[in-house]
Amino acid sequence: MARDGRPLQLFRNLNAKIAAIPMIFTAVVIFAGGTIWTVVYSFTDSKLLPRLRWVGLDQYDRLWNTSRWIISIENLMIYGVFSLVFSLVIGFVLAALLDQKIRFENTFRTIFLYPFALSFIVTGLVWQWILNPDFGVQSVIRDLGWESFTFDPLYTADIVIYGILIAGLWQGTGLIMCLMLAGLRGIDEDVWKAARVDGIPIWKTYLFIIIPMMRPVFITTLVLIASGIVRVYDLVVAQTSGGPGIASEVPAKYVYDKMFLGQNLAQGFAGSTMMLLTVLIVLIPWAYLEFGGKRRV
Amino acid sequence: MRLRSTLAALAAFVTLPAAGAQATELEVTHWWTSGGEAAAVAEFAKAFDATGNKWVDGAIAGSGGTARPIMISRITGGDPMGATQFNHGRQAEELVEAGLMQDLTELAEKEGWRDIVHPVSLLDSCTVDGRIYCVPVNIHSWQWIWLSHKAFEDAGVPVPTNWDEFVAAAPALKEAGKIPLAMGNQPWQSSGAFNVMSIALAGLDAWKAVNIEKDAEAAAGPEYAKVFKAAADAREFRKDSNVQDWNQATNLVITGQAGGQIMGDWAQGEFQVAGQVAGEDYSCLPGLGVTEVISTGGDAFYFPKLDDPEKTQAQMELASLMLSKEVQVAFNLKKGSLPVRGDVDLAAANDCMKKGLEILAGGNILPDTNQTLSPDTQGQIEDLMTEFWSSDAISAEDAQQRYAEIIANAD
Amino acid sequence: MSNPGSLNIAAASLDAVKDRIDGGPRGPRPRKRISRRNIFIYGTLLVVAIYYLVPLYVMLVTSLKGMPEIRLGNIFSPPVEITFQPWVKAWAEACTGLNCDGLSRGFWNSVRITIPSVVLSIAVASVNGYALANWRFRGADVFFTILIFGAFIPYQVMLYPIVIILREMGLYGSLWGLVLVHTIFGMPILTLLFRNYFTSLPEELFKAARVDGAGFWSIYFRIMLPMSLPIFVVAMILQVTGIWNDFLFGVIYTKPDTYPMTVQLNNIVNSVQGVKEYNVNMAATLLTGVVPLVIYFISGKLFVRGIAAGAVKG
């Protein structure tokens, strides 16, 4: 084996290419192929089974005239922005606190991380139970004597999405915290020493020196959080089933319901195409910065 | 799997050549998981096992909405089950057109289904291009309101005998700390209740114009305006029923926490499991006590095409069995639904079922919305109704306008 | 092949990597034991810890109560009379349709689904990551970008195309079909992690092995693999939790005989017969979560170490 020294340039990476076949297959056939297939069929009137009978933009027309879709998009925006901000802030603050040479670091870390081991279905059920006005937090506080206390996000249309957010953050911030902690540990001690010598306050050190140094960690966490946001489905189904009314609907649920319950595949495909479009708008600039700009130099 | 069942079938064939029974495992998927439903489905399984075959139960919990996607994926994915439940109507239409379902015409002709199934319109929904593809097993009608005697006693008002009296009694119920109208949050419950109200309050002609002819003008007309007005009032009554599932809402009625519930006759099974007696503990009013008709929706079983001739044989046996007299009686008594044949004796039926049977015998029947509207249109109506019933933000007028638009585009 | 030179380098770099990761907290050193700062830190951590622990506590307490007690008491009070009946019921007696054998049926199915899926998906993703990090070929970035894009595609969207692909491959409804699906959907994140990890290993190692004439697979098995324990632990934990907790694929790509535990959990929780039995639901929920939870508690520290290695370098 040690014999074959330097293979021909053409076959240089042959093994690597063979090894990458599963990845290429997945990327091209499943992800790209499936996506194109979905987009193509969104211009048809497919019902239960896919068929190629073109109807132009009818499905999109109907989509954007459906109040349930509009509400779904609004919910996704609210959930997305808050989820992103809170995950990053809470994750970073917790990581920074754990990074202070404290006692019981392992215990705290495990406590923050364990919800990630539970599925969204479980998370949704538990929080549904805790936020249930007849049994949960509201009734407990009322029993303590504060009769007028009202906290029933899951049954109030205006704030139901925040009830889902509470559960989503509970499940997800632990992992973000772990990533941030890992990032903090990767920063050289000398940076801190230098900052202290220069008399820079701690919060400034974090904000202007440490965070910019943790760029790769932030990118990984962003991918994780953002992909979780677009996909949010199980949690809503388990917690509220989209209710009260249609106040906590999300796009993924709309797509699923139209495809399989309404037996209108094309309408579901139109919804998913819009979701994918949103992802692309966010992702392409990032991919360009990540791969296009840096590596090709 | 297949080898094992073939062997089992072979063994049965060897030991019981005279009976001709072939023990074949048949997986049957359905979404009957509540107390009364599970008891009813057990009757099918018992009868099927008695023929020497084996019923493999494939229950999927969480209503048809969860179960149907799974069933459809499996059939289109080329891994079909032996038999599967669908609501009677258009849900399986395209699967049949794609040639994925077993043709039952021969069996139906041999056994004369056209003569025994009553009303015969049930069989029409199973028919595509003159061929029969499914077995109707029961008739479920939506047009009922279930009233808790205890709740009305506690509130000190008599049990109403029609919708108007119910509306009049609602404030008293509220004062007594009851929920006047129990309704779960699942979308099909709100659209179902609306449909029941429209048959009762808008009248048959208007209902038919909208749901069968898909006449958008009728949907925007004055009859339907009355319905939307009444529904807007009714949504006040349903506040505080913070439950999801229909049978949890029924449970509120059973325990007297709620005055009534608009729900199909499957609710009957829950009262029965709870040991309640019709006429004493609870009342039922067909057509909300206003227009006494029932819709003949229900469940039907479809049999996907399978490669294995043994299984096909077992499918035919199951299809035939589901329509047999004994099984029809046993199943429907547990399920609280009406049998699909007019020639069976339901002496054991309770008051509510008897009312239903009478209306059925009198021919006051309507098709179910599952038969007249496509799942897509129904889904749009469900979305609208869910929004409407849960939020005061939409006025009756706005809702009616959007409803008319959906009907205009219905297929 | 024996290359003492490269192996020594490997060992040395491994130590270097470990040093970096195990280096301990790097934040500013605290000055006093009890200070305002410490009170603030521990106070905040404690409050947050309570928020994280409350649901687990509620689940546990509820699962040990009888139904009458649940209806009367509040959800935070400890059980007056401890009963294990809900646990027994959830495990062995709860009904879905005609099957009254609780979660027990699904447990072994889940094991049978999880093990091959985890092994295959990690094997594939680690080789991918290795090829992307060390054997870059033309077009690799394009494929990788598409793969990452795949991480954002909602699963529901892909259900139908995958039904068709599996049907054409003849794998629909089989265990291997499900394993393949899990491998496909685990690939984006896992490949990203492995690629980042292998990129973070010192390049000299790889170059030395190449000079010694080692090929693609021998470098992978003899050098990369022995150095990658932390990232394999991370991948394993992510996959075990992901696959164990999966509901959607489990219910669509299997049949009742082989339903995983989560499907049974859903069936139990949604099969309301009369009143919702919250205690049984909670016990079932906890039982379903036990496997991933145990893995977390055992491997907590390794997990963080691995995450550090896989995510920090990009």
From TrEMBL, chain A:
<feature type="transmembrane region" description="Helical">
    <location>
        <begin position="159"/>
        <end position="184"/>
    </location>
</feature>
<dbReference type="GO" id="GO:0005886">
    <property type="term" value="C:plasma membrane"/>
</dbReference>
<keyword id="KW-0472">Membrane</keyword>
<dbReference type="Pfam" id="PF00528">
    <property type="entry name" value="BPD_transp_1"/>
</dbReference>
<feature type="transmembrane region" description="Helical">
    <location>
        <begin position="205"/>
        <end position="230"/>
    </location>
</feature>
<feature type="transmembrane region" description="Helical">
    <location>
        <begin position="21"/>
        <end position="43"/>
    </location>
</feature>
<keyword id="KW-0813">Transport</keyword>
<feature type="transmembrane region" description="Helical">
    <location>
        <begin position="269"/>
        <end position="289"/>
    </location>
</feature>
<dbReference type="InterPro" id="IPR051393">
    <property type="entry name" value="ABC_transporter_permease"/>
</dbReference>
<protein>
    <submittedName>
        <fullName>Sugar ABC transporter permease</fullName>
    </submittedName>
</protein>
<dbReference type="InterPro" id="IPR000515">
    <property type="entry name" value="MetI-like"/>
</dbReference>
<feature type="domain" description="ABC transmembrane type-1">
    <location>
        <begin position="73"/>
        <end position="286"/>
    </location>
</feature>
<keyword id="KW-0812">Transmembrane</keyword>
<keyword id="KW-1133">Transmembrane helix</keyword>
<dbReference type="GO" id="GO:0055085">
    <property type="term" value="P:transmembrane transport"/>
</dbReference>
From TrEMBL, chain B:
<protein>
    <recommendedName>
        <fullName>Probable sugar-binding periplasmic protein</fullName>
    </recommendedName>
</protein>
<comment type="similarity">
    <text>Belongs to the bacterial solute-binding protein 1 family.</text>
</comment>
<keyword id="KW-0813">Transport</keyword>
<comment type="function">
    <text>Part of a binding-protein-dependent transport system for a sugar.</text>
</comment>
<dbReference type="Pfam" id="PF01547">
    <property type="entry name" value="SBP_bac_1"/>
</dbReference>
<keyword id="KW-0574">Periplasm</keyword>
<keyword id="KW-0732">Signal</keyword>
<dbReference type="InterPro" id="IPR006059">
    <property type="entry name" value="SBP"/>
</dbReference>
<keyword id="KW-0762">Sugar transport</keyword>
<feature type="signal peptide">
    <location>
        <begin position="1"/>
        <end position="23"/>
    </location>
</feature>
<dbReference type="GO" id="GO:0042597">
    <property type="term" value="C:periplasmic space"/>
</dbReference>
<dbReference type="InterPro" id="IPR050490">
    <property type="entry name" value="Bact_solute-bd_prot1"/>
</dbReference>
From TrEMBL, chain C:
<feature type="transmembrane region" description="Helical">
    <location>
        <begin position="142"/>
        <end position="163"/>
    </location>
</feature>
<feature type="transmembrane region" description="Helical">
    <location>
        <begin position="280"/>
        <end position="298"/>
    </location>
</feature>
<feature type="domain" description="ABC transmembrane type-1">
    <location>
        <begin position="107"/>
        <end position="299"/>
    </location>
</feature>
<dbReference type="InterPro" id="IPR035906">
    <property type="entry name" value="MetI-like_sf"/>
</dbReference>
<keyword id="KW-1133">Transmembrane helix</keyword>
<dbReference type="Pfam" id="PF00528">
    <property type="entry name" value="BPD_transp_1"/>
</dbReference>
<feature type="transmembrane region" description="Helical">
    <location>
        <begin position="219"/>
        <end position="244"/>
    </location>
</feature>
<feature type="transmembrane region" description="Helical">
    <location>
        <begin position="113"/>
        <end position="133"/>
    </location>
</feature>
<keyword id="KW-0812">Transmembrane</keyword>
<comment type="similarity">
    <text>Belongs to the binding-protein-dependent transport system permease family.</text>
</comment>
<feature type="transmembrane region" description="Helical">
    <location>
        <begin position="39"/>
        <end position="60"/>
    </location>
</feature>
<dbReference type="InterPro" id="IPR000515">
    <property type="entry name" value="MetI-like"/>
</dbReference>
<feature type="transmembrane region" description="Helical">
    <location>
        <begin position="175"/>
        <end position="198"/>
    </location>
</feature>
<dbReference type="GO" id="GO:0055085">
    <property type="term" value="P:transmembrane transport"/>
</dbReference>
<keyword id="KW-0472">Membrane</keyword>
